[in-house]
Amino acid sequence: MIDLTITQALQKLKSRAISATELTRAYLNRMEKFGKKLNCYITQTPDRALADAAAADARYADGTAGALDGIPIGMKDLFATRGIRTTAASRMLENFVPEYESTVSQKLIDAGTVLLGKTNLDEFAMGTFSKTSFFGAPVNPWQLYFKSAMRASNRRFISGDIFTSANSLITPTRNFLPSPTIGCNSPLNTKPFSALVESFGS
User: Which 3-state string (H, E, C) describes the chain?
Assistant: First the structure.
């Protein structure tokens, strides 16, 4: 199931060929197998993911499913998530647990996505290469024994690869437009621009 595009996954979810719980467990299994080695998640949220998936399945059953219901995502650890550690990959915020939800993450919640965890990035998203995260640099999944040499926003491409999530968020730093990922593939990454999406909580 992890090789499905979001469109394909939604089609199967809507037709009940697969359940959101099954899809989520497939990604959680992948995270368990590769997560530590790739270091692409700062915080994993398997219990939250399964709860989100169960809720999505219930909405599919009663015909109230949202636009992205049941799609597992990795949330860049720059966006505040209520009750879930949000670090911005920094020592300063190592144990920060916000009591509020960012606009971006709330919109994804409203659409029915499943939160797998918070993804790694350069500290405060202010870096050029994968070197400044307090939690260590993520690793390119296609070169497991080499540190990735990608811009800060492209850290999400690692978790967005078929290894660990169906979709991930990226953000521009100083209006930086990310170049294509170097050395790995991603089915989809979403970049919210401040002119289009309120930046509260990020």
Answer: CCCCCHHHHHHHHHCCCCCHHHHHHHHHHHHHHHHHHHCCEEEECHHHHHHHHHHHHHHHHHCCCCCCCCCEEEEECCCCECCECCCCCCCCCCCCCCCCCCHHHHHHHHCCCEEEEEECCCHHHCCCCCCCCCCCCCECCCCCCCECCCCHHHHHHHHHCCCCCCEEECCCCCCCCCCCCCCCCCCCEECCCCCCCCCCCC
